[in-house]
Amino acid sequence: MEIKKNIAEIKKSIPENVILVAVSKTKPIADLQEAYDGGQRVFGENKVQEMAEKFDALPKDIQWHMIGHLQSNKVKYMAHFVNLIHGIDKLKTLQEINKQAKKHDRVISCLLQAKIAKEESKFGLSFEEIEHILKSPDFQELENIKIVGFMGMASFSDNQEQLNEEFASLKNFFELHKKNTSTNNCQLEILSMGMSGDYPLAIKNGSTMIRLGSSIFGSRNYSS
Ligand SMILES: *Cc1c(COP(=O)(O)O)cnc(C)c1O
């Protein structure tokens, strides 16, 4: 019952236009089912195989988001059902997604992951690298993927000023390109920022999609 209650409370506290992704990585099917029974339809996972197993076991009106760092050789295991891929940081990965999506006659929506955290270890593209991809002919010829927005992860820090700065920088970059970028396979609508520890601040900075795990399902036994 906790899971349902958590979802209801979070939904009440966020604006209606903000999409809640329930990050269910490492959690058992029963937990996802409880969230589903509470009305949740968007789930995020960070391992392709785990997501595919859960897809097979659960109702088919769920939207599955891949939020983890993606290896190209795994794309084929989710190309038939994944709804949104958040963490793209290479043109090569987009090309592989395009190839696999084509086999299923689908167009798969993707977010480019921007590096906004000051920490060294984070995945993601610089703003310059994102611009370079969006302008490149190799990207523009891809017909079975669509870039629908950007995703960012702020630093693991309590420094609100720093987090605010990181979120705001991506919001500004997003708005600039929302106006000025138009190709057949790029239409920016989604800004995915905010996790359990920082989502209120992310929403203040214009996030339209938050990815919450522990605040819905409780803490995970191992971090991933
Ligand atoms: C695990 C994870 C989350 C959720 O983290 P919580 O702190 O449990 O809310 C969000 N985004 C990504 C990319 C993740 O890997």
> How much strand?
15-25%
**Whole-number tally of structural domains:** 1
**CATH uppermost class:** Alpha Beta
* Fraction of residues in H or I helices: 25-40%
Order of secondary-structure elements: HEHEHEEHEHHEHEHEH
- CATH-wise, what's the superfamily? Alanine racemase
Largest β sheet strand count, sense and barrel closure: 8 strands, parallel
Verbal overview:
The chain has helices spanning 2-13, 29-37, 48-57, 91-103, 127-135, 137-140, 160-180, 199-204, 214-217; strands at residues 19-23, 42-45, 63-66, 84-88, 108-114, 145-152, 186-193, 209-212. The model has no long low-confidence stretch (mean pLDDT 95). It is an alpha/beta fold and 224 residues long. The protein has nine helices and eight strands. The structure holds pyridoxal-5'-phosphate (PLP). Pyridoxal-5'-phosphate binds at residues 23, 25, 46, 67-68, 195-197, 211-215. InterPro entries: Ala_racemase_N (IPR001608), PLP-binding_barrel (IPR029066), PyrdxlP_homeostasis (IPR011078).
Q: What attributes characterize this protein structure?
A:
single chain; 224 residues; alpha/beta; TIM Barrel; eight-stranded parallel sheet; binds pyridoxal-5'-phosphate; Ala_racemase_N; Pyridoxal phosphate homeostasis protein
